Amino acid sequence: MTNVDVLTYAGNLANLNGVVEEHGERYEFFKADIANADQMDALRTEHRFYAVLNFAAESHVDRSINDPLNFIHTNVIGTSVLLDCARRHGVQRFIQISTDEVYGSLGRAGKFTEQSLLDPSSPYSASKASADLLAIAAHKTYGQEVLVTRCSNNYGPYQFPEKLIPLMIIKALRDEPLPVYGDGMNVRDWIHVNDHCAAIVAALFEGKPGNVYNFGGDGEMVNIDLVKMILDQLGKPHSLISFVPDRLGHDRRYAIDSSFAQRELNWKPRCNLKEGLEETIHWYVDNPSWWQPLLERTGRY
User: Fold this and answer.
1) What's the pTM?
2) Would residue 58 be called left, alpha or beta, if left means φ above 0 and alpha means ψ between -120 and 50 degrees?
3) How would residue 24 be classed by pLDDT, with cut points 50, 70 and 90?
4) Buried b / exposed e across 102-112, counting CB within 10 Å, b at 16+?
5) Looking at 5, 58, 100, 195, which residue is catalytic?
């Protein structure tokens, strides 16, 4: 297994502690930009790969609003480079990891299915939708074994502190105001990172080329309720909540129907949100040695 990462501000080699010891020569790290065709070709020349799993992405919506070009570079051009390189070097399978945000916003009822129209609301989600279309086109045009997976919001250990759940946990631990957009009534469906990884493995070996698979955690929750759960778990007062002006183009509700993936891939989410959130909170409480250096190094929060 080869891990390719350009190590942007969110990259952290400490996430790989123990991986080499566990996997030995079966694992290697390659620092490179997926949008650099020469670097990707050099890597494929050195190795023969069965599959490419494209997790790489600029993923923070707020930053995409302020600076879209980085998102186009990595998410669109990078995906195109990886697809072309995989085809030239005979890589059998390509898994494009995407997001439910490409579908836009739901009303009060219903869930996203694989047939839902793409209706992205931010530069981030537009860049991911573009990458998805490139991946599907590679299957239709060249016959590449490409699959697209779209998941709901991930949570769990080792998540960069700019994301909602670790941001709220760390600010609460520091007794700092917890910023909540708008009225806090936006709804997200949460999936534990372990369930998401299991779903991707199932898609890799059981998925049908050309298909899109939606992965949800059956964990719909209103944002303000999620923040209050975190505060309650940490024994902190709700008065730490600070409502701030809403994000531009902020989608109101996401919800994933993952029944097709469950049937086709023999997969289902196993971690319920309440238990998974408690475990995640404990992890951040117990591992300040992981997140404190990140905050100091990046200045991002």
Assistant:
1) 0.95
2) beta
3) confident
4) bbbbbeeeebb
5) 100
